Every structure is written in structure tokens, then in C-alpha cells.
What we know:
The structure holds 2 protein chains of 2 kinds. By secondary structure, chain A is mostly helical. Helix content of chain A is 74%, strand content 1%. Chain A is built from 12 helices and 2 strands; from the N terminus they run H-H-H-H-H-E-H-H-H-H-E-H-H-H. The longest helix of chain A is centred in the first third of the chain and has 30 residues, at 2-31. In chain B, strand 1 (130-132) and strand 2 (135-137) form a beta hairpin. Chain B has one domain: ABC transporter involved in vitamin B12 uptake, BtuC, CATH 1.10.3470. Chain B has a two-stranded antiparallel ribbon with strand order 1-2. Chain A binds chain B through residues 33, 35, 37, 90-91, 94, 96-98, 100-102, 104-106, 108-109, 112, 115-116, 227, 231, 234, 238, 275-276, 279-280, 282-283, 285-287, 289-290, 293-294, 297, and chain B through 35-36, 38, 83-84, 87-88, 91, 93-95, 97-99, 101-106, 108-110, 112-113, 116, 222-223, 226-227, 230, 266, 268-269, 271-272, 274-275, 278-279, 282-283, 286. Chain B: It comes from Caldovatus sediminis. Chain B: Pfam families: BPD_transp_2 (PF02653). Chain B: It is a multi-pass membrane protein. Chain B: Belongs to the binding-protein-dependent transport system permease family. LivHM subfamily.
Amino acid sequence: MEAAALYVATMLTLAGIYAALAVGLNLQWGLTGLMNFGGLGFVAVGAYTSAILTAGESAQHLGGFGWPWWAAWPLAAAAGALLALPIGAISLRLRADYLAIATLGVAEILRLAVRNEDWLTGGPLGVPGIPRPFEAFGQPWGQLAYLALVAAMVAALFALAQATAHSPFGRTLRAIRDDEEAAKAAGKNPAAFRLQAFVLGAACMGLAGAMLAHFFKFMGPDALDPVTTTFLVWVMLIAGGSGNNFGAVLGAVAVWAVWAATDWLAAQLPGELATRAAYVRLFLIGLALQLILLYRPQGLIGERPPRPPA
Amino acid sequence: MLEFVNFYLIPGLVLGAIYAIAAAGLSLVYGVMRFANFAHGDLMTWGAYAALVAVTGLGISPWAALPVAVAATVPVAWAVDAAFYARLRRAAPAVLLISSFGAALMMRAVVYFVFGPTPWTYARGVTPPLMLGAVRIQQRHLLILAGAALAALALHLLLARTRAGRAMRAMADEPDLARVTGVPVRGVIRLTWAVAAALAAIAGVFLAIDTELTPLLGFHVLLAAFAAAILGGIGRPWGAALGGLVLGLAEELATYPFIAGAPLLEPAYKTGVAFAVLVLALIFRPRGLFGGIG
């Protein structure tokens, strides 16, 4: 019974972290039309920032600051935003696909840096011993409390994202996405608005990274995989409905459920087959994305822009 | 000095030649179809593994397997285009880009499924390097340079001297004008994919000859190919090829101890050069050295 509760709590916690990522990407792509293919980079800076600030003293990496999680998480979000600022400033004034290429580059460079800067990140050994909030409660209550914390964070991000989407700021973002010339004619500066949306989304991703690091209690280069940290989030957002925050969260939960269920199914297969099943799943997730783009581009629940007041 | 030539300049030229062919194909697709094809790296991987099948199955050398690699990669590019890209052509370019990301994963998954994640090589054993005076060059390096030069020449002749090549350039320069003047758009797109996939396959095989085959072989140089294409002016295959050469040289030379015996850049960060070049190009020459399409 307790094992089942822990398993469900683990799955829900990860679904919540993915929901935070999807909400962040929705701010960037859904609302503003910015292609960020480097989610991993923003997750990584958030995760490592919080890991280093909270983990104990170690000769293996920079550390020993002993910050509490609630002080470190805002800085993790700030780190994500800070990384986004120069990238956005350079590439957002150019054509849309340059942002996709630049963010892909950032993710790759950060993967290199994380692996090679031993003094900072512990290199391939990573940062172990990241405290998980509420661990003192014992099992399973500690983990349930952490789930509640993640859920509260996601709820807060969701509320902020909803407020953003319905604010004049959010309307401007959609206007820029749909018709840049018209937005310009209305006196808006597209580059500045795009940059703000990009930075906000990156902050969400940084926070999600911190939540991930504290959940794993460990952060290392192998914990971050482009497929699960960047690509899966895209599938979630597009499946759920980009432009719609409800869609982002729904997509995150639904796609994560499928992903986790197929993971479990594959693990039941004997040895070699289990490895191969993982590749079949990779193929199918790529195919699923294609089919959604072709047959249901608006996702499960499409964008519903707020109606103008009558 | 000799050390510089043998261990930095020649490897830099070889890497640059590989980047050049990869980036030329990428830029060609961008020019004709106006989207950044994130599956280009995985087309390279596909070609490299197709050659591996021929090498192990028929016992031929990887050089002789080049036609096999090309023949196996072109239909994949056509199939992906027919199944996905062609139906999204009216959607925003961003959607095509996301679709290409999905296609990349699908191709990679097939390679993983069939060949597994462990690296392969085409040949065992070592061939002694050729000595030209004191200059030492690996035979495979000489062949890669020659092969890349031939591929570039073929591409140039196609684009400059043939009717089909002219149609491709017309589509890149003025897509609407090309359409109304009766350029057969579908045919040009098919030909573009064939040329780009062939170039990708060749680049993939060359890269695998120089290093080893892994399912991420091509994906790992995708960023470099994009950087080269943007440096050369996106949509301009010749610019991309030159950009690739510059980038390959820059990557190898960046680790040379020009000052005080320490490498300018830790070799682990070689890949970072591509990113640095990309960022510098985006800041100072966003249209590339040779003025890419608008």
C-alpha cells in the first residue's frame, strides 16, 4: 500500500514539474510564438543553482552554502531568466528560427560546461546530497508533502500565467505573434515584448529545474536528457493545446501518464527487449507529434483568446 | 610549425570540409523551402549507418559504400517530406521546424533500434599516414578532402550550369516570382531533398570514417552546420560551404597553444566554437558574410 502511494506520489510530482515546464514553454511558444529548443539549458541552470546553494560542503563541487530551499528556488528562477536575457537580446530581433538554433546551442554548451567544470558542478559525478524539503516527515508523508509543495508551485505559476495571458501584456504578445506589423503600427515594440515573454518562460523553466533537482536529491549531467527535458515538453504543449494554459497542464499530465505507463510496460519485458522498447517509444512519440501537427494542430483544447468586453 | 600543420591545420581542414558539405545541404533546404531542418543531422547519421550495413554486409570499403549511403538516404528524405512536410507547407514555417524535430527523433529511434547505442567503426586496424616531406597526412584525411572538393564541385555545376539548378536558385531568391514564371515547384522540392540528403549522407559517412558511428553522430554537428550556414548567409550553399571550412579550422585552431604553451581553449569545449561563431554572426553579421536571403 505504502509502495503504491509512493509510486503515485512520484509520478504526480514529476507530472507537476512537467506542467511547470509546459506552462513556461506556453508563455514562449504558445502565447508569443518563440521557438525555444533549449529547455534543457534553462532547466540545468535552475537545477544546478539550487543544488549548489543548498547541498552540503563537498570537495567534489562548489557548495557548503547551506541555504534553505525557499531561498534558493527564487534564485534558480532568476538564473533561468538571466540565461535567457542575452540569448533573447541577440536572437529575438532576427528571424524566428534563429532563436530555435541559438537555444539549441545554449543547451549543448551548458551540457558541456556541466560535464567539464568539475570545481563548480562536480563534473560527471554531479551534485549529490541535495536536501528534499519535508524529508524530516519520514516516508510516505515527506514525499506527499513535497508533492503538495510542487502542486502549490504549479498552481502559482499557472495563476501567474493565466493573469499574464489575460492582461494587456498578454494580449500584446498574441498580437505580436499573429501580426507583427499591426502590433508595430499600434505602437508596440515587438522585440521588447518578445524578450520579456522569453525571460518569463525561462524563469518558469529554471524553477522547474530546481524542483527536479530537489526531488531527485541529485543533479548530474546524465540526469538531463534533451529528449525528456526539451522534446517531451514540446509534445506536451502541442498535444495539450499551445496558447492555452489549461492545455499546457493537461498535455503535461496526459503525455506524462502515457510516457510513464509505456516505461512501466517496457520494463516488464525481458532484458534486451526492454531496451529496444524504449526506442520504439521514442519513435512513437515523434510520430505522435507529427500526427497532432497534421490532424489536430490546435491540440486537445485549443487556444481560447479572451473575448473583448462587449 | 610542423606540429601545427600536422595536428591542427590538417584536422581543421578535414573537419571544415565535412562541415562544409553538411552545411551546404542544410542551407539549400533553407533556401528553397524556407525552414531550418532540424533533421539534417539525423539524415547524416542515417547515411553513415547505411554505409555501415554495406561495409559489413558486402565487405567493401566505406568509400565504395558512399553510393549505398546516398541511395538509402534520399528516399528517407523524400518519404519524410511526403508524409509530413508537404502537408504542412501552408502552415507557419515554425510548424515545419517542429515537425522536422519530430522527424529527427523518429530517424534516430530507428538507428537506435537497429544498431544500439554502442559506437561502431567501419574498419579495424590502422593505416600508416602518408609522409609528404615532413608533413604527415592520414590517407583518410586526404580522401575526405578530395571527396568534399568533388561534392562541392558537383553541387556548383548543378546550381550554376543546369536548368534544374537555376530553378532551385530562383526558388531561393524569389519564391513567388519563380512560381508564376512556371518553375515546377514540386519537382524542384524533390530535387532539393535529393541533393541535400545526398550531401548529408556523404558528410555523415566522412564524419564516421574520421571518428566513429553513434546514433548521435549527426545531431552533434547540427549546431555547427547551422552556425556555418548562418555565417555564410543562410540559403546560400556556397556561403555555407565556406562557413563550414572556416568553422572547422576555427574549432581545431582554437585548441592550439598560440600563447604561453596553453591551448587557447580547452579541447573539451571545441563544440563551443560553433556556438561562439553563431552568436558573433548573429550579433555582427545576421545576414552572414555573403548576404543570406531576407
